[in-house]
Amino acid sequence: MEYKQTIGGESTYTGIGLHSGEISTIRFKPAKADEGIVFIRTDLPGKPKIPADIDHVVDISRGTTIGINGATVATIEHVLSAIAGMRIDNICIEINGPEAPVADGSAVVFLNLLRQCGIVQQDSEREYFELDSPISFSAPEDNVDIVIVPSNELKITFMIDYKHPYLGTQYTWLPSLDNYEKDFAGARTFCFINEILELKNMGLIKGGSLENALVIAEPNISEAELKHLQDIFGYHKPITVSPEGILNSHPLRYYNEFVRHKVVDLIGDIALLGVPIKGHILAARSGHKTNVELVKKLRQIQKKHQLQKIYQKDKSKDVVFDINAILRILPHRYPFLLVDKIIEFIPGESLVGIKNVTINEPFFQGHFPGHPIMPGVLIIEGMAQAGGIMLLNQMDNPQNYVAYFASIDNVKFRKPVLPGDTLRYELKVISLKRSLAKMHGETFVEGEKVAEGDFLAMIMEREK
After folding, report:
1. What residue ranges are annotated as transmembrane (predicted)?
2. How many of the other CB atoms lie within 10 Å of CB of 3?
3. Nearest to 182 by CA among 118, 106, 250
4. Catalytic sites, residue numbers
5. Bridge partners of residue 158, in order along the sequence
6. Domain containing 259 — which CATH number?
7. 255 and 153 housed in the same domain
8. Which of 414, 47, 78 is nearest to 261 (CA)?
9. Same domain for 245 and 334?
10. Whole-model pTM?
11. Parallel, antiparallel, or unpaired for β 190-192 and 214-216?
């Protein structure tokens, strides 16, 4: 059994934000058990708290930004990376500006501050996100591929492949978080000289300098171009280029520092899941955008696991919710419960349910004697009940609520359903709010569509 950890004291750091150029002070403080990682904007009215989780990510264009009700904190990935690298579960981070300080472009400054505070074990058991089978994620438009395979701890294998003479292909691997502090935390952020010029023209990286990032030059860069950069950054001394192509000749901290920094970023981004991961991540050319998309996918799986832990007592590989779990979620009972099990479930996106139709169904007595056919309205009701599971699972106590139809549109029946048929309900979410959902449902028998429709359902508290 492992227990969660927080820090034993407080520490502060003041520095400039990479993009905003604003000076801010960040203060690390202990947090209560199960409080998680929380940023607090002390400069705003009410000092809003912003949980550092995937549900509060509002921008990933240049780094990771979280927000709530208009309050945001930008470029938090290096801070989160240091926290995750130290295996800290609960911490409060007060900040009096819109962006975390960039420091030297790595996570090591924040890691040293956390180490100075000391680590304190708490009385809450640590939970992990664990995999039963490999997960893959691809973004062809960004030339990114990521695979996660089961492992007894977090491991990362990373490859970058830039078509640039000073960089090219680099590879690294993190065998354990035990290696993070020594071998990865000091790796600095990097960019190419053309990106610097473009970002400057866009009014970004107002706090960027050659001291808080590794800037990679183009081959045969001219003295005129270096003078132009000197003017842009307001430097009094000439800018030089190292044999490795780094402006101002900063020596590399690691021979493959660039790819190691990608690991630093990835560890910071996956911290947004809210729980540490046990798995081996193999990533090719990934950045913040695809890291966050990966975490969103993991979050869906995590939600499913959480729901199964609550409702599904008997684990089965081919069932998400069996009939006993469904009875814990839905208020329907015989003779009007029309879902037997849920076999696929992506929270907030889609669901697949199964209904076995037998001659013992009570409606066959009158529909029709000697010619039993399942009423089409009950097929629609079955789809709606399956969709209700999607909606009710968002409530803390689903047994206290019921899902009502608000509208049913575009209903079509294509083939009769007979005793002995197995209905496969496939529901896809069109829009989903806490108490209102619009879904498109289709029902199949042996791969052939028998009915479909669009549903608008709303959640209301049951009368006591």
Report:
1. none
2. 12
3. 106
4. 288, 367
5. 172, 283
6. 3.30.1700.10
7. yes
8. 78
9. no
10. 0.85
11. parallel
Can you name the residues that pair with 92 across neighbouring β-strands?
29, 38
Q: What's the rounded Cα separation, in Å, for the pair 350 and 94?
A: 38
Buried-state track 385-402, b at ≥16 Cβ within 10 A, e below 16: bbbbbbbbbbeeebeebb
Site of tokens 């990510």: 57
pLDDT means over runs of 10, the chain (464 residues): 95 95 97 96 97 94 91 97 98 97 97 97 95 88 93 96 89 96 96 83 82 89 87 85 87 95 97 96 94 92 84 79 90 94 90 96 94 96 90 70 88 97 96 85 97 91 75
3-state secondary structure of 213: coil
Do residues 340 and 438 both lie within one domain?
Answer: yes
Annotated binding-site residues for Zn(2+) read 78, 261, 265
Same domain, 278 and 227: yes
Distances (CA, A) of 435 to 393, 401, 441, 459, 463: 11, 10, 19, 5, 16
User: Is residue 69 left, alpha or beta, with left meaning phi > 0 and alpha meaning psi from -120 to 50?
Assistant: left
DSSP characters for 183-209? HTTTPPPEEEHHHHHHHHHTT--TT--
Radius of gyration of the chain (CA): 27
Cα–Cα distance between 61 and 39 in angstroms, integer? Answer: 20
Beta bridge partners of 72: 67
> What are 176's two structure tokens?
């354990």
Question: Domain range holding 198?
Answer: 135-286
Whether 451 and 400 share a structural domain: yes
